[in-house]
Amino acid sequence: MLDLRIRGGNVVDGTGAPGRTADVGVKGGRIVAVGKVEEPARRTIDADRLVVAPGIVDIHTHYDAQLCWDPYATPSPLHGVTTVIAGNCGFTMAPAEPEDREYLSRLMSRVEGMPLLSLTEGVPWDWRTFAEYLGRFDGHLGVNAGFVVGHTTVRRRVMGPDTERAATAEEVAAMVRHFHEGMDAGGLGLSTSVSPTHNDADGRPVPSRFAERAEMLALCRAVRDHPGTTLEIVPPPGRFSDELVALMTDMSVTADRPINWNLLNVSKAMAADTEQRLSAYEHAAARGGCILGLVLPDATSMRLNFMSGFLLDALPVFSQLFELEPAERVRALASPEVRALLRRSEHTARGRALYYIVDWGGLTIEQTFAPSNSGLRGRSVAAIASERGVDPLDALLDVVVADELRTVITTPFRGADEESWQLRRQAVRDHRTIPGGSDSGAHLDMLDTFTLATRLLGPTVRDRGLFGLEEAVHLMTGAPAALYGLTERGRIVEGAWADLFVFDSETIDAGPVSVRNDLPGGASRLYGEAVGVHHVVVNGEEIVAGNQLTGALPGRVIRSGRDTRTVTAAEALTGDWRR
Fold it and tell me: Could you give the C-alpha distances from 383 to 305, 346, 364, 380, 392, in angstroms and in order?
């Protein structure tokens, strides 16, 4: 007898092939039949007029901390996600000795926008090694979760607080040992960052940003020794320097793995930079490496604030503000001399990757706190500036100072015009990219891109017609699973793990997003459910029915070598993983 039969759905199998009406039979956590399935089952789901697809594979998340208190990594599975990859950007929760824990908590709070109170109250720190960290999740997951080994975390473990320098040969050797131990335990490879947007709780560059080339390549040699591993990096915003392209190329060649960089956000304003960044692929390919851009398949807006300063601290001169304590920062932002300095420096950001931030008048006030700011919610900075007869930057900073930095500001949507949508379509289909970049689990007061899959399948596929349904499903399931070498996942075929996503293609969409105070310590986050999602199944067990979690915990820790196969740089260059 089958454990589960899904009957009569439009099976879109994750390969890009046309959908077909079929049943899916599941037993022992795996798909055992696709077609006409007559065998009786303990549970039958009627999928008439519904799509049956593989579960979404989200390769760029930051659920490292949240999974300690939330085994479902919500709200991702409500949007069809069955597998998450965490540990990105160089930031992981292990290895960690007791003396590392405060730094890592404060780091995650600043650089990934996780409330410090939730990290303090919700993370048990009942591990020291990467193996112990992975082991704590066995039998305690609703979704499947894999973890890359984070460079910043390992560098801090080895060098302590003295990370703002080149590592010695002995320190590099110690880091290599930690990486070997992490990947022996099942870590999925190396993640790192060289981006000026990544600063710690003291406003200082994260440890990986001080690594020399030799250190990076030593870690990549360690990756090469472990099957089923990969590379991930965060570069600076904007155009790539020759030095960066050479570094990423050598990292890929040394590890003999593809390296994906995060993130490509497409708009007509940055079309030239997009092509220049993607051209790193050709440079690497000529030398036997493979560089792929992680491209966000949606127009985006985000929430900013001057308390955490994320992204704002990547602007010239602005970064110095976020090395100041909050009270000092308020005084600085109120100073005419500091404002004049900021105003002069903003011009260097115009026409570059963060152009949408320095158009101060185009920002919108989302939330205020001071009585003097009452009534400003939903108003543009330009309108406020005009009403007050001041410069837009002065208008914005007056609001921020009155709120003691807590003001929530939203950016304009990037790439919401038709030309940008067409450019985005080309970028998503480009052999030099992989779609994704939800960043789920991070920037909890800033991003709602956990809706990525449902927005793609609804507004982008159904309403805009930019992609076919089968193509979109493949790009979010079979393609990322193949690139990361996830064995027997991402496709609906006999023998594969039964990670399944049943939805109504006529209604699927992201639902409203709002603030929810449900984190440890009562902290808040942006949260949203989906429309048109009927069932989500992980390893043969239903974890979502409608918008409700079932309480089942069938998820597995995805470990390199056991649950993944090696995808070499040469194999990634063939593009077969996209087919």
Answer: 19, 20, 9, 5, 9
- Say which DSSP state 564 is in: B
Q: How many residues does the chain have?
A: 579
Q: Which residues pair with 549 in a beta bridge?
A: 544
Euclidean distance between CA atoms 471 and 14, whole angstroms: 8
Q: What is the mean pLDDT of residues 181-206?
A: 96
Strand (E) positions, 208-258? 230-234
Spatial separation of the C-alpha atoms in residues 308 and 322, rounded to whole Å: 8
% of the chain residues with pLDDT over 70: 99
Are 329 and 321 within 8 A, CB to CB? Answer: yes
SS3 306: coil
- List the structure tokens of 396: 């914005």
Write down the residue that tokens 């790439």 correspond to. Answer: 415
* Helix (H) or strand (E) segment spanning residue 153: helix 151-159
Place of tokens 């960043």: 439
Per-residue confidence (pLDDT) for residue 318, from 0 to 100: 85
Which residues does 242 contact at the CB level (< 8 Å), separation at least 6? none
Rounded CA separation 420/460 (Å): 13
Report the alpha-carbon distance of residue 485 to residue 231 in Å, rounded.
12
Please give the CATH superfamily to which domain 56-300+424-498+558-578 belongs.
Answer: Metal-dependent hydrolases (3.20.20.140)
Pairing of strands 149-150, 44-46: unpaired
Going through 282-420 in order, the beta strands assigned E by DSSP cover 291-295, 303-304, 364-367, 408-410
Residue reference for tokens 């196969």: 565
**Which residues are CB-neighbours of 488 under 8 A, at least 6 positions away?**
30, 495, 496, 497
C-alpha 175/C-alpha 181 separation (Å) is 10
From-to residues of CATH 3.20.20.140 in the chain = 56-300+424-498+558-578
Beta strand pairing call for 433-435 and 291-295 = parallel
In angstroms, what CA-CA distances link 494 with 9, 26, 36, 475, 565?
16, 9, 13, 20, 19
CA count, 13 A, side-chain hemisphere, 368: 21
Which residues lie below 8 Å from residue 155, measured CB to CB, with a gap of 6+?
163, 167, 175, 207, 208, 210, 211
The answer to whether residues 469 and 501 touch, using CB atoms and an 8 Å cutoff, is no
- Banded pLDDT at 571 (limits 50, 70, 90): very high
Model pTM above 0.85: yes
* Cα–Cα distances in angstroms (integers) from residue 238 to residues 39, 350, 355, in the given order: 56, 11, 10
Segment 97-138, tens digit of pLDDT: 999 999 999 999 999 999 999 999 999 999 999 999 999 999
Residue in this structure with the two tokens 């063939």, named with its chain if needed: 574
d(CA 552, CA 142): 6
Measured distance CA(50)–CA(380) in Å, rounded: 42
Q: What is the DSSP string of 123-134?
A: -----SSHHHHH
pLDDT digit string, tens, across residues 39-77: 999 999 999 999 999 999 999 999 999 999 999 999 999
Q: What does the pLDDT look like over 333-375, one tens digit per residue? A: 999 999 998 888 776 665 566 778 888 999 999 889 999 999 9
